[in-house]
């Protein structure tokens, strides 16, 4: 029995890196679908730091994190932060309005299906996900951090979120050059 358990744990440890997304990486375009029928494109926030959260409408931790991010959005918004959330559980489209009310979210909360979310996150189909999932995108559209709900990042989430936001806000805005590299803006 111990041998089977040891083999199983070894297999999990070997496969774990396959589930990890590459960071940093360029953020692909993503549309946050709102229940009003409107869509918000991530590219419309180029020049801002974006916190993109993926949540479940029946998750208490997601609700609490959205409440925390509402306060941080109010504080950091004038500095160039934009927060968005996407619910991707079953029936999310119908459940988003009550989730917004319960969480007190003051930023756009949309919905999507699981497969497009996994594709955006670069997480293989079939992996167990723990929510919330937070993605930090810098001003040039590069994903600089991606944290799944069971990550140590959430152990002291407010402190870690603030540190991440402060670090990203201190960086110069980078714009693509004709050679495809990035250069500092305003240098």
List the helices and strands and how they pair.
Elements: H1 2-19, E1 25-26, E2 31-33, E3 39-41, E4 49-55, H2 60-76, E5 81-87, H3 92-103, E6 109-111, H4 114-121, E7 133-137, E8 142-147, H5 157-170, E9 174-176, E10 182-184
Parallel strand pairs: 4-5, 5-6
Antiparallel strand pairs: 1-8, 2-3, 4-7, 7-8, 9-10
Describe this structure in words.
With 187 residues, the chain is an alpha+beta fold. The chain has a single domain (22-173), classed as Glutaredoxin (3-Layer(aba) Sandwich). The chain is 37% helix and 22% strand. The chain has helices at 2-19, 60-76, 92-103, 114-121, 157-170; strands spanning 25-26, 31-33, 39-41, 49-55, 81-87, 109-111, 133-137, 142-147, 174-176, 182-184. The strands form three sheets. A six-stranded mixed sheet has the order 1-8-7-4-5-6. It has a two-stranded antiparallel ribbon with strand order 2-3. The chain has a two-stranded antiparallel sheet with strand order 9-10. Strand 7 and strand 8 form a beta hairpin. It starts with a helix and ends with a strand.
